[in-house]
Design goal:
Porin; Porin_dom_sf; mainly beta; Gram_neg_porin_domain; about 0% helix; 20-stranded antiparallel barrel; signal; porin activity
């Protein structure tokens, strides 16, 4: 990141401010991939390149309040220049105990919720292009968030005026009581929001999650209820370290017709340059999923990775090399036998086929 301190009169007009801080950052990628996928999503075939720039403007106001605006835009994307169009725009006013956010920011319930395993009824709406207004505040050690989606479709009132409306109210809370942590999340029902993304869930949802630690084990109990369809999920999740290995497991009871109870086990190993992660899951539709993935750090900037995932249908080998100064070289080969991973193979989300790519962060 490169920082430039400019007079607010010349860069951004925060009233009464003496100076504003503007932070620029970005990422550029140039690569080649030799395989066309069955899906059009995220498919970079042949040579591909892009440049994304992010900007943050911050200003210290009176009374300990900080005003900020963040946004990012694509400069080029597989062409030699595009019209600049900012996305992920967020305005905020924050202090030590509270914050107000507007734009492409997380909704309250989704920002706080922590599940216990793969629960079917905890699908709190995720922000993906919607305009959200959210307020955060802390009282007596409890962090609370309240939000709503700003529906840009207009409605006429009795006087014929058109105004934006707020939809799907959401609340999330988390805190600690002694050795116990808790999370409460709720979102209202909203089935007529126009232009919502696939991450929007119109159902009314409630979730409660409690965690603690004893005898070296981390334990979480969680309950989520779809109040619209009157279905619920009840789960327990445990993680326990044994030397360099952390073993875990969960079990979720599902009440909805057609949903199997889900369960899974995992083991993560880290020792020196070696990292291995493996899991097995029985999913809601009765299918099974498992993966074994690992990496070895040669301590000279080179890391070798390999893995099998998606119940054996996906596999990959790859290496990354740090070039210094935020630059990295990637070489990978990945296969997706059932064409369902859409150029996101394994946990690193490699592209199908052979790929060589250099990326720069600044």
């Amino acid at each position: 990141m490169k920082r430039i301190l400019l007079a607010s009169a010349s860069i951004v007009a925060f009233a009464g401010a003496a100076a504003a801080e503007v932070t620029f950052g970005g990422e550029a990628t140039l690569g080649y991939n030799d395989t066309d996928t069955a899906s059009d999503a995220d498919d970079d075939l042949g040579f591909y390149w892009d440049l994304e720039v992010g900007t943050t403007l911050t200003q210290e106001l009176d009374n300990g309040i900080t005003a900020a605006a963040t946004f990012e835009f694509d400069v080029v994307d597989n062409d030699l220049g595009v019209d600049l169009e900012a996305d992920s725009f967020v305005l905020s006013l924050t202090s030590d105990v509270a914050g107000l956010y507007f734009g492409d920011t997380a909704q309250a319930a989704d920002s706080k919720w922590v599940s216990a395993g793969d629960m079917a009824q905890d699908g709190f709406s995720e922000t993906d292009g919607e305009d959200v207004i959210r307020g955060d505040f802390a009282v007596y050690g409890i962090d609370t968030s309240v939000s709503a989606i700003v529906d840009n479709t207009t409605e006429e009132d009795d006087d014929g005026a058109s105004d934006d409306v707020l939809d799907q109210y959401s609340i999330g809370m988390d805190g600690n009581f002694g050795q116990f942590g808790f999370v409460v999340a709720y979102q209202s029902e909203e089935d007529d929001l126009e232009g919502a993304s696939g991450d929007f869930n119109p159902e009314e949802l409630l979730g409660v999650s409690v965690s603690t630690a004893f005898a070296g084990a981390d334990v979480r109990l969680a309950y989520a209820r779809d109040m619209t369809n009157e279905d619920d999920s009840t789960g327990i999740e445990v993680a326990y370290p044994v030397g360099p290995v952390t073993v875990g497991g969960y079990y979720v009871i599902e009440s909805a017709d057609g949903d199997d109870d889900t369960w899974g086990v995992s083991a993560d190993y880290t020792s020196g340059p070696i990292t291995v992660a493996t899991f097995y899951e029985h999913e809601q539709d009765g299918s099974e999923d498992w993966a074994i993935e690992g990496s070895y750090d040669l301590n000279n900037g080179l890391i070798v990775l390999a893995g099998v995932s998606d119940a054996g249908d996906d596999y990959y080998v790859a290496s990354t090399y740090e070039l210094g100064g935020g630059a990295q070289l990637l070489a990978s080969f990945a296969e997706d036998d059932d064409d369902d991973s859409e150029d996101e193979i394994g946990d690193p989300e490699y592209q199908d086929g052979a790929t060589i790519e250099v990326s720069f962060e600044f």
